[in-house]
């Protein structure tokens, strides 16, 4: 991708970020098909042992730190993933109920989570996401990204994360969804 196109998409995202209402995060669907907004609120995705959970991944486009998902996409030249000509954008408002979304926003919380849900697998540690789900959580939030875990083999599940983000596997955690018009 040419540097001009990269800059154009990045500038578009910066502008788009200003249009997202407070309390909402962006979900980028990599399809030009419209997803019915009601579908977001009705999902319930079963979990399993894996590095990452399955569900709707969201991220603030620019999370006021050097580990935003948009910055990661830009730096690693995956801009097709966020190209407005190839994607549909949604703003999703996640519930404020602290009991529904597990927040891993401190190193201690990440370590405690790892100890409770980590499962040894071939040469790595994965997470028993089914147990997380069975414990009553509808999603998980990685609002801070800790580089201190990045090359730690014991935290291979954490290494699979690219940036600050969250994953929702039960639509009851979604308060509202707005489709964002990207036609300028």
Describe it.
The chain has 184 residues and is α+β, with helices and mostly antiparallel strands. The protein has one domain. Helices cover 28% and strands 24% of the residues. The protein is built from six helices and ten strands; from the N terminus they run αβαββαββαββαβαββ. The chain has helices spanning 3-19, 37-42, 69-75, 107-117, 129-134, 156-159, and strands spanning 24-29, 49-50, 56-58, 88-94, 101-103, 118-121, 124-128, 139-142, 165-168, 174-180. Strands 3-9-8-5 form a four-stranded mixed β-sheet, with no helix packed on it. The protein has a three-stranded antiparallel β-sheet with strand order 1-4-10. Strand 6 and strand 7 (124-128) form a beta hairpin. The longest helix is centred in the N-terminal third of the chain and has 17 residues, at 3-19.
Can you describe this structure in just a few lines?
This protein is an alpha+beta fold and 184 residues long.
In the predicted model, the low-confidence regions spanning at least 5 consecutive residues are: none
- The residue fraction in helices comes out at 25-40%
User: What overall geometry do the principal axes of the alpha carbons give?
Assistant: globular
* Major sheet summary line: 4 strands, mixed
- Strand order across the biggest sheet? 3-9-8-5
Count of helices? 6
Please write the string of helix (H) and strand (E) elements.
Answer: HEHEEHEEHEEHEHEE
What is the averaged pLDDT score? 81
Output the structural class.
alpha+beta
Quickly count the domains: 1
Instruction: State the end-to-end distance.
Output: 22 Å
Q: In total, how many beta strands?
A: 10
Which band does the percent of strand residues land in? 15-25%
Rg over CA atoms = 17 Å
């Amino acid at each position: 991708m040419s540097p001009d196109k990269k800059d154009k998409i990045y500038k578009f995202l910066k502008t788009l970020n200003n249009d997202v209402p407070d309390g909402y995060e962006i979900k980028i669907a990599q399809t030009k098909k419209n997803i019915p907004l009601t579908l977001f609120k009705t999902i319930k995705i079963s979990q399993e042992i894996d590095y990452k959970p399955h569900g709707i991944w969201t991220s603030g486009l620019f999370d006021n730190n050097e580990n935003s998902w948009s910055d990661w996409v830009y730096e690693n030249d995956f801009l097709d993933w966020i190209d407005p000509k190839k994607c549909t954008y949604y703003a999703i408002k996640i519930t404020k109920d602290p009991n529904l979304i597990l927040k891993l926003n401190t190193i201690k919380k990440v370590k405690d989570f790892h100890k409770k849900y980590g499962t040894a697998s071939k040469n790595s540690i994965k997470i028993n996401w089914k147990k997380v789900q069975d414990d009553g959580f509808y999603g998980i939030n990685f609002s801070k990204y800790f580089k201190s875990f990045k090359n730690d083999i014991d935290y291979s599940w954490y290494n699979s994360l690219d940036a600050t983000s969250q994953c929702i596997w039960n639509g009851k955690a979604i308060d509202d969804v707005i489709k964002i018009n990207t036609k300028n």
